[in-house]
Design goal:
The chain is mainly beta. The chain is 10% helix and 31% strand. It has a single domain, classed as Immunoglobulin-like. It starts with 17 loop residues before the first strand and ends in an 11-residue tail after the last helix.
Length: 170
Amino acid sequence: MSTCLNANNQNEVLPPPVLWAQRKHLLYVKIALEDCKNPTIKLETDKLFFRGKGGTENKEQEVVLEFLKKIKPEESRYAVRGRGIEFILIKSEEGPYWSRLLKDDKKHHWLKVDFNKWADEDESEDELNSGTNFEEMMRQMGGLDDSGGGDLSALDKELDSDDEDLPNLE
């Protein structure tokens, strides 16, 4: 569910692009709003509220994600980065994969699967963890706090494969 204000005029608050993926015990959510400084983020057991300014036009954007099932906000983490805000949300119940992220089953143009992090439910833990140590990532993310969720500078290269050095063109 997204929140839009003044839907009939130019002061409309649009939802930012949101990407998501999951594992048995957690969800990955990325709000893909570049150069967002000091966003307002409220994480509850059944929803995530985001409001921030950024992107190429530096416009205010807002979204409320009402989750299909409950999460553990006290164990979940997030980090504000240059390319967006990344969340690791711990599910309240480990078990079967969620059929979708949101409570409503409506298709939203701004919500997409993050295929870079997606894994099928039947993949083994060894396959899922090859190349990424999720416990270390959670430790480095720190706690949810007013400073933006913790210092993630050490994880920038590990999590953002788009920033890898590209070979020279010949």
